[in-house]
Amino acid sequence: MEKNRLEAFSDGVLAIIITIMVLELKIPEAGDGHFSDLVPALPKFLSYILSFVYVGIYWNNHHHLLQCCKLVNGKVLWANLHLLFWLSLFPFTTAWAGEHHLMGAPLAMYGFVLFMAAIAWVILLNCLIKADDSNVLLAKAVENKTLKEKISPFIYIAGIVSSFFIPWLAISFYAVSAVIWLVPDKRIENALREARSK
Predict the structure, then answer these.
(1) Which of 18, 73, 79, 83 has the fewest CB atoms within 10 Å around its CB?
(2) What is the pTM assigned to this prediction?
């Protein structure tokens, strides 16, 4: 199967996720129209920024991932839906963590959803590699794991655990993981560049 519909559907879902997240940011009801009125909303805004960055990371890397592939199959479609399921929970966990900042359960749930989205990403990657021989460029590009791939699950787990003991540390773990994934996978960019030069 061609990948066009999968890409279009995924782009649409990610756009809706971002829209839902921003709609959770409410204008302060009380106040005199000063910047100080926004202070109580700061935790929500910061959780929105972090989640926006994560959605952006997934969208960016998803785009790179599919550039290396020509064909998909049914397993890929389901693996992609599995990823989108976990990403679709971002608005809920973002709102909960923003509303009850520095509380254990919301931060742990936020980290759990991040962790499961990362697992879903790995499943999608493996399904794409196995989907068709024409996806060999992707297989070759990601055959050796990077350091950030190896440590990311442990960062999420550390964040989940620390949520109940040192909440600000959990937030730091989630932010660090976002920072290390900001740059798209260079292996894929390099593989695409090499393929074009041949």
Answers:
(1) 73
(2) 0.91
Query: SS3 letters for 26-39?
Result: CCCCCCCCCHHHHH
Buried b (16+ CB within 10 A) or exposed e, 141-180: bbeeeeeebeebeebbebbbebbeeebeebbebbeebbee
Kindly report, residue by residue over 131-177, the tens digit of the pLDDT: 888 778 888 888 888 889 999 999 999 999 999 999 999 999 999 99
**Residue 64 CB: number of other CB atoms within 10 A?**
19
Helices (H) and strands (E) in the chain, counts: 9, 0
Q: Is 101 left (phi over 0), alpha (psi -120 to 50) or beta?
A: beta
- 15-63, pLDDT tens digit by residue? 999 999 999 888 877 767 778 878 888 899 999 999 999 999 999 999 9
- Cβ 189 vs Cβ 137: under 8 Å: no
